[in-house]
Amino acid sequence: xxxxxxxxxxxxxxxxxxxxxxxxxxxxxxxxxxxxxxxxxxxxxxxxxxxxxxxxxxxxxxxxxxxxxxxxxxxxxxxxxxxxxxxxxxxxxxxxxxxxxxxxxxxxxxxxxxxxxxxxxxxxxxxxxxxxxxxxxxxxxxxxxxxxxxxxxxxxxxxxxxxxxxxxxxxxxxxxxxxxxxxxxxxxxxxxxxxxxxxxxxxxxxxxxxxxxxxxxxxxxxxxxxxxxxxxxxxxxxxxxxxxxxxxxxxxxxxxxxxxxxxxxxxxxxxxxxxxxxxxxxxxxxxxxxxxxxxxxxxxxxxxxxxxxxxxxxxxxxxxxxxxxxxxxxxxxxxxxxxxxxxxxxxxxxxxxxxxxxxxxxxxxxxxxxxxxxxxxxxxxxxxxxxxxxxxxxxxxxxxxxxxxxxxxxxxxxxxxxxxxxxxxxxxxxxxxxxxxxxxxxxxxxxxxxxxxxxxxxxxxxxxxxxxxxxxxxxxxxxxxxxxxxxxxxxxxxxxxxxxxxxxxxxxxxxxxxxxxxxxxxxxxxxxxxxxxxxxxxxxxxxxxxxxxxxxxxxxxxxxxxxxxxxxxxxxxxxxxxxxxxxxxxxxxxx
Length: 591
Ligand code: GCB
Known about the structure:
The protein is α+β, with helices and mostly antiparallel strands. It has helices at about 60, 310-325, 340-350, 380-400, 420-435, 480-495, 525-540, 580-590; strands at about 10-15, 15-25, 45, 65-75, 85-90, 95-100, 100-110, 115, 125-135, 145-150, 155-160, 175-180, 185-195, 195-205, 215-220, 225-230, 235-240, 245, 250, 255-260, 265-275, 280, 285, 290, 295-300, 330, 350-355, 405-410, 440-445, 465, 500-505, 545-550. The protein is built from eight helices and 32 strands. Strand 26, helix 3 and strand 27 (about 350-355) form a beta-alpha-beta unit. Helix 4 runs parallel beside helix 5 (about 420-435), helix 6 runs parallel beside helix 7 and helix 7 (about 525-540) packs parallel to helix 8 (about 580-590). It is globular and about 75 Å long.
């Protein structure tokens, strides 16, 4: 799915800002058609942001159901004769979009964009009322899944099996944009190279065509010089003296796709891409034929005040801190991040493992009185699978052209040992490969699904495992933890003979808590914990990466092991370094 842009033939208006806001406590908004007129409310809310932490009101923070956003929108006068679209970069977790009273788009899945052609409902030069109903409910039919329970006194409560707060709202930008009638609808670019020549395979989808359109493509280098051109909706372009996209050096080309009618330019869309290859060979992960070692973090889109709202300044600061630690990569735990994050990674040569929102497909963590078995009618069922297929398809559709993305991760810590796991995951792994044959596919394994119990890792290209020896196992005993971790890693290596990435390892740490005895929760313990893990990783040939959990402290649902959130960050939530950050900087900057 193409990101909207300004081009010689397209215009883009950003609709971020303050919206009228109403929480649908009585769950009556849809029946009463709140979209039919101005929302009756004094409240306003900021877009982009999570709404949860903006108001000093527990009822709003804990609300389970719809909230409503509304604003008036002016359509530029010059857009007469064009197609006019509205796009939401995300609505978490479900969005319904109304233009005046008409429902123009509905979308499930809180971390991928959706758009609607609203030309028939608006007029160039006129205004319309944009209303968006956003639902934060997680059910068996959503990714991530969840369960809603009702207390004896009638309060609805959201339960979920993942360890981050269920922030909701309009976390990313809203756009109004114009396109020509006949237009570039999609662009797919895949690359490799032969010697010094880059091979750029492309395919262009055209929408709204009458039949006589022609398509041309041009490749521009980073300085804007044309280095290749071709005609037709698909083909292979050759780029001489190619500059590769490399980890640490994100060289980008642009492919300009143009649609012509009777020799006249009608649409122009510019897609950036990098020329690089990714390959698994034996126990190695190769980028451009060179072994790559992942150094970095699992992260979260999470900040005080704005929750999961995207903010360019905070994003930039996170990237600067990543760079300061010497990290070369991260995983988009546990959902697709804002596209601006991937664009930054593309430009700066940062390697990304791109993950769907499929987290918490596991009842072993316990749901109170909830479902006992993961793959069952009352938890992960055919509805979940359908949403999971959609989540994978939308992730690939959105992110396929990002050179920074070197691998798809289709789930985090699902139950991989129950008999339902293989029938559930086999088709999903196959689907991902069918949608994109150029990138390895993985899933992330949970600690209790050991090499013996796991039934699905062979379906994937890389072994990705989260291991907490010294924290959840052998808590505080780093010596026993070291032995146990090494033993298990050797078992994975022997069983699969594939590269292993340690996708999570970490210890909760209270910034400022110090200990002479390396006591858990102290900064000294976190540092010693990481050093123990690193000693083991360095002894295992198949280990090709280490992603610390987590980059920064983050908010979670409250729980007996969560004091104002998860404290495994090597930075605090306001991005101050704990002692461990210096350990990483030393290790990662020196090799
Ligand atoms: C995990 C999960 C992650 C949690 C982490 C923890 O394995 O993947 O989402 O936050 O453990 O800190 O327990």
